[in-house]
Amino acid sequence: MTTNTQDSMTVVPRILFVHAHPDDETITTGGTIAALVAQGAQVTVLSATRGEGGEVIPTDLKGLEGDRAGFARVREAEIAEAMAALGVREHMFLGGTAHRFEDSGMEWGPDSHAVAASSMPANALCATELPTVARYIAAVIDEVRPHVVITYAANGGYGHPDHVRVHDATVAAVDTAAWTTGRLLFVDVPTEVAREMFDANQAGFSETGFAAAETIPTKPPVSEIVVAQDISSVLAAKRAALSAHRTQVAVAGGFFALSNGIGQKIVDHEYYSIGAGAPISSETLAAGAAPHVLTDLDIDACESQSPAAPSAATLRRSRREPKKPGFFAYAHAVLLALLIGFLGAMQHMNVSVFDLGGATVILPWGVGLSLLLVVCGLWHLKTMYLSSAPMLVAAVVIVIGSYVLGQPQWLPGSDIIVTGTFRSAAWLIGPMFIAAIFAFVKVRRPEAAR
């Protein structure tokens, strides 16, 4: 059954919100969270870090900056208060007791967007390999079994590197989790709404004491906005949750500001694009953006994991399926192989001879360097085209070219460049051996497909 409202469902919908730091859940999705809870949905909020690297707004709490452990405890208390304001009973930190991810930090760039910090701790979210982060998120998905997963768009909202990492990891987690999520949504803000949010001429702004934005910090939307969740009935809950994050957010009337002091309006809608899974019907979108994150989502089919139910993982995999290598890929492989084959053949015989205690030691560094060049070239082809075919073509070209250079009757001056020595034998056999190993290595694009 297809549904537009929670009231017609036979299954209580479960929604998982994945965020990077305490306060993100309220700033970007707090109204949606409160609205869903009020409608009886089961809402889980997952915070990847405790926000240890954030700046502190209140002057009397400035001493927390740099005290990562103490700051983490304060922000844990803040998000607990915010969750109570929004009505959320299920909040967790990514990794649980097994692993602790820390805030990577950020800096404000010249365009008023966030950029990566100049340094970060070893266990920072952005210092952790993406598959590791995704694995922990996938474990939460399998535990919660959400019908909808909501996280940031690929731009991270305003560019925060932790937001971008959570987006990428969540996309990968939806792909790999055993539970099939019915819909993956990304927080996205329409350009006209962003202009309204930061409009310093609107009523009430001058009384806040906040600074006016010289440029709009929010980045343009990545994808088509298809959901405009009305949160006007729960704005009081969102304001209360924002106020709970007092180290990070200052609230004045219908406006709030982060550590940069730039004021923005608390708007009465929150907006989303679909990353994967069940689409919004064209009939619904004909009247504008859908009014609810669950619009046109068959909760019952998703709950039963019916083959007929839309599969976010399946849809993402089909969109991420790489194209078969074309002419350019093989031309690239041949040209690269000719270059590697020539350089390797010319240098593979080089050695250094040492006298160690009367014993002569020969170091065949030439063949080692030549084979390293092959490793780099073949791996480049494998990862660039996500296919073994161009890589194998390159290996064959390298071997054939080297064989030709070992036939003096085919070369001007009857030269022989590839000889019958052990080093030349290693050079002739090595590329195919390396290609054979790489052919069994599975690779995939590290970035999340849109």
From TrEMBL:
<keyword id="KW-0812">Transmembrane</keyword>
<dbReference type="InterPro" id="IPR024078">
    <property type="entry name" value="LmbE-like_dom_sf"/>
</dbReference>
<feature type="transmembrane region" description="Helical">
    <location>
        <begin position="327"/>
        <end position="346"/>
    </location>
</feature>
<keyword id="KW-0472">Membrane</keyword>
<protein>
    <submittedName>
        <fullName>N-acetyl-1-D-myo-inositol-2-amino-2-deoxy-alpha-D-glucopyranoside deacetylase</fullName>
    </submittedName>
</protein>
<keyword id="KW-0862">Zinc</keyword>
<dbReference type="GO" id="GO:0016811">
    <property type="term" value="F:hydrolase activity, acting on carbon-nitrogen (but not peptide) bonds, in linear amides"/>
</dbReference>
<keyword id="KW-1133">Transmembrane helix</keyword>
<feature type="transmembrane region" description="Helical">
    <location>
        <begin position="386"/>
        <end position="405"/>
    </location>
</feature>
<dbReference type="GO" id="GO:0016137">
    <property type="term" value="P:glycoside metabolic process"/>
</dbReference>
<feature type="transmembrane region" description="Helical">
    <location>
        <begin position="358"/>
        <end position="379"/>
    </location>
</feature>
<dbReference type="Pfam" id="PF02585">
    <property type="entry name" value="PIG-L"/>
</dbReference>
<dbReference type="InterPro" id="IPR003737">
    <property type="entry name" value="GlcNAc_PI_deacetylase-related"/>
</dbReference>
<feature type="transmembrane region" description="Helical">
    <location>
        <begin position="425"/>
        <end position="443"/>
    </location>
</feature>
